[in-house]
Amino acid sequence: MTTNLLNYDIKGLADFCAEIGEKPFRAKQLLRWIHQLGITDFVDMSDLAKSLREKLAALAVIESPQIISDYVAADGTRKWLLSVGADNGIETVFIPEANRSTLCISSQVGCALACAFCSTGKQGFNRNLTVAEIIGQLWIANKMLRASSENVTPDTNRVVSNVVMMGMGEPLANFENVVMALDLMLDDHAYGLSRRRVTVSTSGLVPAIDRLRERCPVALAVSLHAPNDHLRDQLVPINKKYPIKELLAACQRYLIAAPRDFITFEYVMLDGVNDSIGHARELIKLVQDVPCKFNLIPFNSFAGSGFKRSPPEAVRAFRDLLIQAGFVTTVRKTRGDDIAAACGQLAGQVKDKTRRAQRAARMETVK
Ligand code: SAH
Ligand code: SF4
After folding, report:
1. CA 61 → CA 7, 12, 56, 131, 189, distances in Å?
2. Cα–Cα distance, 22 to 39 (Å, whole number)
3. Which residue's CA is the nearest one to ligand 2's atom 2?
4. Whose Cα sits closest to atom 21 in ligand 1?
5. What topology does CATH give the domain 66-366?
6. In whole angstroms, what is the distance from residue 150 CA to residue 153 CA?
7. 236 CB less than 6 Å from ligand 1?
8. Atom of ligand 2 at shortest distance to CA of 120?
9. How far apart, in whole angstroms, are the C-alpha atoms of residue 150 and residue 154?
């Protein structure tokens, strides 16, 4: 059996080297070849002894997911549909801006958490992505984008300066693999991104937030979406297990590990559901004690969602109240919606092991 080296962080590579009778420091050289230079053929790794290169060629591969399609939107947003085997597709989105470029990475095929307004959630869950499939998205983006130097952002000298785990899936439900991929993103021998330029977005898995704080306290975004448990229970069902009070306490604990940081609360604006002035006031009271920013996300619709995007006046009024109360608040620009690359539109092709889609279809016919 060949080993896919894209599955290993520095420690995993050092262990692998030891197993095949090589010095552990080779791990650093391998990381650079694989992640910084995007080399897949061991023959090209010129600072490794010929005997080692031959050994690696016999025992290992460097294998990322396959690109199925590559779309570029009118605003420059680029989306790759990647195959991860057995008819499963995942999506990765690249969002270039003037002084930074963000890659939005998926962590699972589908998602089991079934948030009411999310297209990924509607499709159910198939499986967790491997480390190679998670870091492979950044690896592919770098390789594809480096080909054109206009993609390099001047102040960071990188094609991808920021990573957000906001694609398909709940990253903290695939904890070990996500953390290993995060380690690679931060490792100077691999991508060397700073902790603050890597963001994990979670719907609120409280115990895993605590574990992330201990293991790898990158920037944290929390999908709040409602100012009280009654409403959040309906929109983000995991709230029934980890209600708002527990979630906010976990956010406060998180900031103890990173005291100069803040939590970003994401709030999808759903017309007539969570977007009134009353909701904004309730929200302001709720988060008083948490150092935080808000990111309001205009709802991106998809077939059969049952929700509507809040009108721009409602979003502005909501934002203004938060700003007046002293919270830094941004409204997310909707990028790439002509190629269905906007938040919550990522669908891929999911073989749902939970059979949620079939159940939902049956419910429809019963109604
Ligand atoms: N599972 C994680 C990360 C992936 S979703 C999470 O839920 O945080 C990234 C963000 O997009 C989340 O804030 C999510 O709530 C939001 N989102 C999901 N569906 C959306 C939609 N249809 N329109 C706008 N935002 C959506
Ligand atoms: Fe899963 Fe996040 Fe979508 Fe909720 S919003 S269903 S947690 S991907």
Report:
1. 10, 15, 8, 14, 19
2. 20
3. 170
4. 344
5. TIM Barrel (3.20.20)
6. 8
7. no
8. 3
9. 9
111 CB under 6 A from ligand 2?
yes
Query: Can you read off the two tokens belonging to residue 314?
Result: 């409602």
What is the reported pTM?
0.92
Show the tokens assigned to 327: 């919270």
What length is written for the chain?
367
Which atom of ligand 2 is least distant from the CA of 111?
Answer: 1
Q: What is the pLDDT of residues 277-336, one digit of tens each?
A: 999 999 999 999 999 999 999 999 888 899 999 999 999 999 999 999 999 999 988 766
Q: If you measure from the C-alpha of residue 303 to the centroid of ligand 1, how many angstroms do you get, rounded to a whole number?
A: 16
Ligand 2 close to Cβ of residue 235 (< 6 A): no
* CATH fold for domain 3-61: DNA polymerase; domain 1 (1.10.150)
- Show which residues are catalytic: 91, 343
Contact 100, 93 (CB under 8 A): no
Q: Which two tokens stand for residue 328?
A: 């830094």
Q: Give yes or no on whether 3-61 and 66-366 have one common fold.
A: no
Q: Is the CB of 300 under 6 A from ligand 1?
A: yes
Q: How far is 138 from 19, CA to CA, in rounded Å?
A: 27
Could you tell me how far CA 214 lies from the centroid of its own chain? Answer: 19
Q: What are the residue boundaries of the structural domains of the chain, listed by start?
A: 3-61, 66-366
pLDDT tens digits for range 220-278: 999 999 999 999 999 999 999 999 999 999 999 999 877 778 999 999 999 999 999 99
The H or E element containing residue 222 is: strand 219-223
